[in-house]
Amino acid sequence: MAGISRRNFVKLIGAGGAVSALSLTGCESVPKASAKAAPRVVVIGGGFGGATCAKYLRIYDPSLNVTMVEQNAGYTTCPGSNWVLGGLRKMDDLAQNYNALRGKYGVNVVHDRVTGVDASKRLVTLSSGKTIEYDRLVMSPGIDFKWNAIEGYDEAASQLMPHSWKAGPQTVLLEKQLRAMPDGGTVIIAPPGMPFRCPPGPPERASMVAHYLKTNKPRSKILILDAKENFSKQGLFTAAWDELYPGMIEWVPGSKGGKIQRVDANTRTVYTDEGLTSQKGDVVNIIPPQRAGDIAVSAGLANESGWCPVNQHTFESTLAPGIHVIGDSAVAGALPKSGHTANNIAKMTAAAIVSIFRGVNPPTPSHVNTCYSLVGPEYGISIASVYRLGADGVLEGVKGAGGLSPAGASNLMRAQEAGYARGWYSSITADSFA
Amino acid sequence: MAKKAWKYEKAVVSTLMGAAGLLSVPAVQAQEIPRAVVIATTCYACHGTYGASPGTIPSINDISAERMISILQGYRSGQRASTVMGRHASGYTDDEIAEVANYLGNLQKRGK
To answer: Does residue B93 belong to the interface with chain A, where contact is any CB pair within 8 Å?
Structure first.
């Protein structure tokens, strides 16, 4: 227990976790027994959060027995999916696989679907009927949608008005609709209120769609019907739109008629102003309100907000000891829901879990978010933040650090950041999956 | 006591030999993960695992600790021009910059 009182230790990791952590530490410190009693971690979900956590658990402690359960054979990243809509990338470019996790890092990757979690028995049940025991569980299922939060927008409607907020077939569907629409048509993009996955994603999407339309269907318009009153990197985006796509993009905030109450998917019509106003689009992209992934909710890890409260130091659930919730599903203070923060949270959580097994203090958290958006192929902008744990246990941005790309920056800087946006994609996917 | 010391020694050795080697290892706190390691892993998201970048963002695995301290302090003060690094470097103290620079500066010596 080097340098940590039992009282603080229990407080830190939760009373339920203390006993098993202590006993596992006991086993682990005796080398001969460690092979037999290697602590077992099960990671649910193979996105940026889950894959990174599995990798770094094995980096931090190669003796750990790490199993990652992911229902799909590979992963299609959401980052870069807007670039596909703009014609800058192909879907294949977004494909990640788990070969390195298996071969290079020794993670046991299981392709199956988790049907249940028993926190008291520390047991995960799979759709195949198999069960997996764990000493610590990492839950990283991403988001699911609040279907019908907008009346008429359910899963069936998303086949006509795609959300494209999980990359894959939905991205392809939206791309096809954009390619098929007539010149002079209208694209409606409808972002939800906060919090949701990737706050700068909707304006980047509008930008990439505008790039495609300007090149191919220049008489077309983009109407952003936003549930919010403002949006991420707003000043930078709007200045860039004026420069690159003048007159093409109109943004309507919630209070001015942007909030959609109802949709009719068959006619691609959306209703705002309590149903008094309707808008018809040639392509309608509804990004619905979101919540923690289904399995996190069914495991009882979410509260009434739909998201999962955690100890923001270790990301252990405050509702179920022994389970860490990471990535978009977690409530993580000031950290936005992004692939970048999921990667960061995953590493911090891996360090915390290894420390808990060892019976030592998890390291002091330090988080970063860097988010690049492409407004055009050679026009990139970014927002960056550094986060620390505040006195109240909430992750907050470090004052004086972080911020946006400067307004009025040179074309050179915009081009440099466009290059770094692509570099960021290469690096973060490698750091998470390779 | 002797037995306890042996355990710590074993822990240090296994850490250094593991595929990992992420942990820097002052013997007294062999099993604690230093903050420099945590901060370094946050660099890896953009600069690649162990600072080896696969893309257009520069690698940071071949920079001496001394030079990295000077570069990061230059970003923080604004004397050194940057796109995003000034915004990041401002989030760290002198001690944190020195610790992470020393950690990253020694990565290659450990075969990373």
So the answer is: no
Helices (H), A29-89: 31-34, 48-60, 81-85
A·B CB contacts under 8 A: 153
Question: Chain B: nearest CA to A319, how far in angstroms?
Answer: 26
C-alpha radius of gyration, chain B, whole number: 16
Domain locations in chain A as residue ranges: 6-71+112-144+291-362, 147-288+370-433
Buried residues in B57-84 as b, exposed as e (16+ CB within 10 A): bbebbebebeebbebbbbbbeeeeeebb
Q: Where does B34-110 sit in CATH, by number?
A: 1.10.760.10
- Whether chain A has a CB inside 8 Å of the CB on B97: the answer is no
Are the C-beta atoms of B34 and B99 separated by less than 8 Å?
yes
Using a CB-CB cut-off of 8 Å, the residues of chain B touching A434 are 49, 54
Tens digit of each residue's pLDDT, chain A (434 residues): 334 444 444 344 443 333 333 333 333 333 343 445 799 999 999 999 999 999 999 999 999 999 999 999 999 999 999 999 999 999 999 999 999 999 999 999 999 999 999 999 999 999 999 999 999 999 999 999 999 999 999 999 999 999 999 999 999 999 999 999 999 999 999 999 999 999 999 999 999 999 999 999 999 999 999 999 999 999 999 999 999 999 999 999 999 999 999 999 999 999 998 888 999 999 999 999 999 999 999 999 999 999 999 999 999 999 999 999 999 999 999 999 999 999 999 999 999 999 999 999 999 999 999 999 999 999 999 999 999 999 999 999 999 999 999 999 999 999 999 999 999 999 999 999 99
Fold of A6-71+112-144+291-362: FAD/NAD(P)-binding domain (3.50.50)
HSE-CB for A69 with a 13 A CA cutoff: 26
- Is the Cβ of B82 closer than 8 Å to some Cβ of chain A? no
Topology of the domain covering A147-288+370-433: FAD/NAD(P)-binding domain (3.50.50)
Amino acid at B31: Q
